[in-house]
Amino acid sequence: MNTFDKKAHWEKIYSTKALEEFSWYQKTPSSAIRFLAAGGHSKNARILDVGGGDGFFADHLLDQGYTDVSVLDLSSVAISRAQQRHGARASKINWIVSDILAFSSDKVFDFWFDRAVFHFLTTADETKAYVKKAAHLLSPKGEMVLGTFSPNGPKKCSGIPVKQYDEQEIERIFSPYFKVLGSEREIHTTPFHTQQEFLFTRFCLNS
C-alpha cells in the first residue's frame, strides 16, 4: 500500500511553479486583510498564517507595522522563496516549516488565519487533531479565521482531493472548542480566470 507523502508533493509543486501559476494566488490578500481589520487587533498581536508559504499576507502585515508575525508551511521551498522575496525584511518574520498537525509552540496566537489548508484534511482523525491543536494554540481572547472550499468549490486542488464545507458542517466540527462569530462565502478568481467559491468562518474559543 502506497502512503501519500504530502511534504514531497508540496516541495515538488513549489519547485516547479511560479507564484502566479498557483490557483490560490492573490497579489492582494483581500480576505486576510479584511478579517484582520474587522477583529481590531493591535500591532503587537501574535499572528499565525497557516499555510502562508510565499503568499503576500506577511508582506501586508509588515507594511502595516505588525511586529509578531509567524508564517507556517509544510514546504521548505515555499518558505525559502518567501524569505528571498522579503530580503532583509525576512528577519522580522518567524518562519516555520511544519505540518500544522505536528506543530507545537510555547506561545499562543491572537489571530490564526488559514486560507486553504484545513480542507486538505480529509479524515476525521485529521480534522479532530486540527481542532484540538488550534484550541490549544489560540489565546483566550483570540480569533481564528478559516477559508475552505464551499460545496460549490473544487473537489481537488493541486491534484489532491479536498473536503468541501458548508456553514453547518464547519460549525459542527469545531463546536467542541469553538464558537462561530460569523461566516461568509467569497468567490476567488484564479490566475486562469476560473472561479472558486470559498467559505470563510470566524471563530473564538468557547467561554
Determine the oligomeric state from the structure.
single chain
The spatial strand order of the largest sheet comes to: 3-2-1-4-5-9-8
Number of self-contained structural domains? 1
The low-confidence runs, each spanning 5 or more residues with pLDDT under 50, are none
Helix/strand-derived class? alpha/beta
For the biggest sheet, the summary is: 7 strands, mixed
Describe the protein in words.
A seven-stranded mixed beta sheet has the order 3-2-1-4-5-9-8, with helices on both faces. A two-stranded antiparallel sheet has the order 6-7. It has a single domain, classed as Rossmann fold. Helix 3 (57-63) links the parallel strand 1 and strand 2 (68-73). It is globular, with a radius of gyration of 16 Å. It has helices spanning 6-16, 30-39, 57-63, 76-86, 124-137, 167-174; strands at residues 46-50, 68-73, 93-97, 109-115, 138-149, 156-157, 160-161, 178-189, 195-205. The mean pLDDT is 94. The chain has 207 residues and is α/β, with parallel strands linked by helices. The protein is built from six helices and nine strands.
